[in-house]
Write a structure and sequence with these properties.
By secondary structure, this protein is of the alpha/beta class.
Length: 395
């Protein structure tokens, strides 16, 4: 059996690592695993296919900025890729993020419909059923439920600097993505599954499979002692854009006692230089052991995301025994229960600060409960086995 996954990255970034982990598990189950990707120079236990090249990606990016036609360029490289698919003859084609300036979704789906074989599409955000954006909660937009037009966030990913093509994009996606005889959607949160049920993809089979993490890597460190002088508040993101809640931490600084130290991981150089006193920022780290130590050292992990699907940072913190406090937005609350953290009303910085103080001063959550929740529900070896079961069911 041959599995072909398609994603913008391979074994890099959150979605690339998920594809890599699924490929590893497929190999252990006797499959031949391939990953087709758009950018980077990755290593992988799966066989790799690069779709296009850096020049084509840059050209696709320019077209997106000028004409809002994301996913409609890269025609020749997509046709070349389809020739490789025909030679490979996969039994399952598994899509992840096909937005990212590397593939033409119309040409791809024309082929997938002609092929007619089983397709799994893991939804990591909302882009497949909107006319432009990957998320819309922050601006409170619901046009995607009927028909996109006059997009309120053209500058969000995939950013357009000039043209608003959201109406045509919506219609193009609807025509392209509907009509496949054997496609199953896999939203990675119940929140996204609910959103999917309101979209033009609502009539297709959908099953939620949450993201998983390596609980052997993210684990409690027994000899890690808390700083007795200061309380450590931790935030982690791969990119701290506005939707990740950086401004919420700035608000928090004035609402927390002076002996509460805020540490943010993943900031850019410019973001670090602009931080107010009392907030320490460091650049993104690829040193997982260092990240695990920060999770262990923290008194609480704070995720004030303003729109998100199912952030794995919540899982990583819990696996290290650290309670989580998050806004009630998107799929972020799904990782937290009454024994592992607090869920705070959207953008209520006062209640967020109160919850942080409660956790730091009163210790209402036990590290073992936090750890146990990830073992039960988010161990990637268990979670991603659901994909293998899905493959066997639909092929």
């Amino acid at each position: 059996m041959i599995l072909l996954q398609i994603n913008v990255t391979a074994n890099w970034g959150s979605t690339g690592k998920i594809a890599e982990d699924i490929g590893k598990l497929a190999i252990k189950n006797g499959w031949e695993s391939w990953i087709a990707y758009g950018r980077g120079n990755p290593n992988s236990e799966s066989n790799l296919i690069r779709i296009g090249n850096d020049f084509d990606m840059r050209l696709h990016g320019i077209g997106t900025r000028l004409f809002d036609n994301h996913g409609l360029m890269s025609k020749s490289v997509t046709k070349d890729f389809i020739k490789k698919i025909k030679g490979l003859k996969p039994d399952i084609i598994h899509l992840h993020n096909i937005h990212g300036y590397f593939i033409n979704y119309k040409i791809l789906f024309d082929y997938l419909k002609e092929w007619g074989g089983p397709v799994v599409w893991t939804l990591h955000d909302c882009w497949p059923f909107t006319g432009h954006c990957a998320y819309y909660d922050y601006v409170g937009c619901s046009k995607w439920q009927n028909e996109c037009m006059n997009c309120p966030q053209l500058r969000s990913f995939p950013s357009s600097l000039w043209k608003d093509r959201s109406y045509n994009n919506f219609q193009d996606k609807k025509r392209a993505f509907c009509g496949h005889p054997n496609i199953t959607f896999v939203p990675v949160s119940e929140w996204l599954r609910n959103e999917l049920s309101k979209s033009f993809l609502k009539d297709y089979p959908a099953v939620t499979i949450h993201n998983g993490i390596d609980i052997d890597i993210f684990h409690p460190i027994e000899d890690m002692s808390q700083n007795s002088d200061k309380k450590l508040i931790l935030g982690v993101a791969s990119v701290w854009d506005k939707r990740k809640g950086l401004e919420e931490f700035v608000k928090l600084r004035d609402k927390l006692p002076e002996d509460y130290e805020i540490l943010l991981i993943g900031l850019s150089k410019d973001q670090i230089s602009a931080l107010p006193k009392g907030i320490t920022g460091i650049r993104r780290t690829e040193n997982i052991e260092e990240l695990v130590r920060y999770y262990n050292k923290a008194d609480v992990f704070v995720n004030p995301t303003l729109e998100d699907n199912f952030p794995t940072t919540n899982l990583e913190a819990l696996a290290c025994g650290t309670p989580v406090i998050t806004y009630n937005t998107g799929g972020s609350p799904e990782a937290v229960d009454k024994n592992t953290g607090f869920i705070i009303p959207y953008q209520n910085a006062d209640m967020l600060a109160e919850g942080i103080v409660d956790i730091c001063e009163n210790r209402p959550f036990d590290a073992s409960d936090c750890r146990e929740r990830t073992i039960l529900y988010y161990d990637k070896k268990k979670v991603y086995d659901n994909y293998i079961k899905l493959y066997d069911k639909i092929r």
